[in-house]
Amino acid sequence: xxxxxxxxxxxxxxxxxxxxxxxxxxxxxxxxxxxxxxxxxxxxxxxxxxxxxxxxxxxxxxxxxxxxxxxxxxxxxxxxxxxxxxxxxxxxxxxxxxxxxxxxxxxxxxxxxxxxxxxxxxxxxxxxxxxxxxxxxxxxxxxxxxxxxxxxxxxxxxxxxxxxxxxxxxxxxxxxxxxxxxxxxxxxxxxxxxxxxxxxxxxxxxxxxxxxxxxxxxxxxxx
Length: 223
Hints:
By secondary structure, this protein is α/β, with parallel strands linked by helices. The protein folds into two domains: about 5-125, Rossmann fold, CATH 3.40.50; about 150-210. It is built from seven helices and five strands; from the N terminus they run βαβαβαβαβααα. The protein has helices at about 15-25, 35-45, 65-70, 90-100, 110-145, 150-185, 190-210; strands spanning about 5-10, 30-35, 50-55, 80-85, 105. A five-stranded parallel β-sheet has the order 2-1-3-4-5, with helices on both faces. The longest helix has about 35 residues, at about 150-185. The chain is elongated, with a radius of gyration of 20 Å. The two termini are about 30 Å apart. The relative contact order is 0.10.
């Protein structure tokens, strides 16, 4: 059973955190509060998160600086960041958000449904990644413990690989459908950046799965 995904909410105003919790509670995931950039970085030291909602305007360490720290850490550099801001300073301000590593940039007041939908995409991707990693780890354990039963292990591994590949293919189809929808709707830079992030993640997963195939470098049964 895959555990609930954790979503990090970073804002110095308690009322904003409360509003985010109200909007995202329908996703039925674990919501973690942080009232400053420093507090967010501490939370990221111990927990894994599916996505980070990060306020730009905060006293002390602002959102841009917090994101820079997150992207410098190997453990956290791939966590999607959605910037939230109450001030629209124009294209240059938005570009700074993307340059800091954000996958999306949303101005307040935002549409609750849109925000929830965007967060749900990253939660679903995170959950799929967790499932694939767990199944790949199980496959490796079965291969390593097969001993002299190479034939049986090969059949079992082929079945597991097929299941993993099918599950990943389903996610790839969803991502492809999302990309086509974005093209049809002439999506803005934020949506395009989100889709590109998903594609990079899926490409990495497909590459890792292909490496487990028999005959691949480092794949198949251990020698």
